[in-house]
Each structure stands twice: as structure tokens, then as C-alpha cells.
Amino acid sequence: MALKRKKFLIILIIFISALFTLYKLQFDTRKEVETIVKEKIEKVSVFTAKPGSFTNKIRVFAKLYSEKEINIISEVDGTIKKKPYNIGSYVKKDEIILEMTDTRKLLELKEIKDILSAYKAVLDEESKNYKNAITLYKKEIISKDELSSKENLYRKAKSEYDNREATYRRILWEFDNLNIKAPFDGTINKYYFDVGQKILKGQQLIQFSNYSKLIGKVSLKSEDIKNIQINRSTINIVNSDSEIEILGTSKEIDKSVFSYLLEFKLNNENKNFLPGEVVEVEIETEAFENYLIFPSKAVLNINNKFYIFIYDNGYAYKMEIEPNWIDNENCAIENFDNYDELTIITEGQSNIQDSQLVEAIN
What we know:
Elements: H1 2-40, E1 42-49, E2 51-73, E3 78-82, E4 90-91, E5 96-101, H2 103-138, H3 144-176, E6 179-181, E7 186-191, E8 198-199, E9 204-220, H4 222-225, E10 235-237, E11 244-251, E12 260-267, E13 278-295, E14 300-302, E15 305-312, E16 315-321, E17 324-325, E18 330-334, E19 342-347, E20 356-360
Parallel strand pairs: 1-20
Antiparallel strand pairs: 1-19, 2-9, 2-13, 3-5, 3-8, 4-7, 5-6, 7-9, 9-12, 10-13, 11-12, 13-18, 14-15, 15-16, 16-20, 17-18
Helix pairs in contact: 2-3
């Protein structure tokens, strides 16, 4: 009896050991299979795109010009005496920016002043005599002919004085114009002559400008100009926050590559830019609304067709698209189906197929 019980216990132990070994083998196999399956699921990165708007922009170069720039011309002959300011100096309106001298005009001015003083004395005397004659005539002390004679003498003296005064004023004007004054607040860009040089009437003396506001000019292709809306499009200088206003466009007949010219006004009160400077500008050409915007690295080009993979509940679904390239890093597709959001695979998509099981790692 004891022997039978011992055999039964041995058989039971062997059976339990075999059952445990079988279970462990099955568990390890299942775990290994799950590990293999899990390792075969592609890991991907995703991006959630939501509806929005964007604008297409182009970058071109523009040349800046002074809104107010003139060449100051000499009104008189003279010799350069002094240049009070250096080139590049900013001066206020009516400040003297160039001094000239002319000895001949100085002598003429002194001479005409002396002559004018003499004629003024004669005029005063004849005026006094004429007024006395009027009084005497009213008292019937002198005749009308004597009054007319005094009047004629007065008028002759007045005419001669007026002629000399006109000559004096002309010479004084010429003398005053030997000093050149700033016509407005601005900057001296260039002197055309040096100290000691003789100047003739009509010659250019100074290039003078005010560049608190500058005019920018950009040459554009016809396909770009068509998309620019003067009242809605914006233009910005790259790496600058200066205020800019688009003025309009015109056609350039003499250009073979570019056929249109866009002009804009730049507020340059802080003097960040100079006339003649070339700057890079960014111009809005088109505005788009209700587009899904996402990183352009999500797009696959297969035989000149463009695709993205959509992530949905652990699966990747292939979608053909017509991308709009915003810049080097982003693109957009029109939201025809009015998605509230769309999860797009941005990394790992080159290794997967349509409807494949994937794992999002972000």
C-alpha cells in the first residue's frame, strides 16, 4: 500500500513538472513572437495639422532712392570761400552750407549804396518842395504852372531813386546769394567744387537730399506682379521692422527679363538706410485661407507625384496631394474635406506602405 502511494506521488510530480515545462515553453514562445511582431511595427513621428491661412512671398532686391534730392545751382558768379560742413552732415533749413566771395560785387554794393544815399537826399528835397508848393497853391500864392513844375521835379527824382534802388536790390541779391543756404532739412551728399575754385552762374555746387523717407524700386516678373494687390499686399525689408507703403507699379519698356517696376516708400526717420543702398525685400503675392499647414519633410515625391501618410488609430494611410510650398520648411494643402485637424506622419514614412500598422513615438 505504501509502495503504491509512493509510485503515485512520483508520477504526480513528474506530470506537474512536465505541465509546468510545457506552460513555460508556450509562454516563452508567445513572448518571443510578440517581441518579433512588435519589432516589425515601424516607428514614426507625427504632426497635427490644423486649418489656417498663409501667404505666398517672394524675395527680391530693391534699390533705395532719396524722396527729396536736388542739385543746388549757383545763382551768381563767385569763388568758393568756405565749406562749413563735411559731406554726410545733416543740417537744418536755411543754415549756410557754402560760402562764396566776389570782390567786384562787394565794391559794386558799396558804390551803389553811396549813390542811392545821394539820390535819396535829392528825392527828400524835391518831395519837400513839392509838398510846400501844394500848400502855396492852395493859398493861391503860386500858379498852377509852378505847382506842375515842382511835381515834375519830384517825379523825376522819384524815378531816378527807384532805378538806383532796383540796381541796389539786384546787387544785394547777388551778394546775398554768395552764401548758399539749405533749402530744407537734409544731408550734404556731395560738393562739386573745392575752396578757392571759381564758380560761374548756373554751375552745380552741392548735391543735397533728405532721406527721412526713401523710395524703393523693385523689378518684378509679370507673373509676380499679377498677384500683388496694392491695397492688401505687404512688403518688408528682410531683418528690419521699418514702416513701408507700396506706392504702385509701372511697366519697364526697356527691360528684357523684368517687365514691371514696383515702387514703395520707406520711413527712414532713424536713418538706418542710405540712398543708393540695395536691400533684400520680401513681398506678399497671394493669400490662401483654409489650408492645412505642415512640415514639408512629410511629403514624398514618387514618379513626380506627391504623397503624404495620414496617421489614424495606429495605421498609416497614403494620400496623394497637391502641395503649396510656403518656404523651405513648410508646405500646405487645401482643406477640401474641412478637417478640424489631420495627423500627418513626418518621419519614417519612406519605410511604410498604405494601411500599414505603425507606432507613433511622439
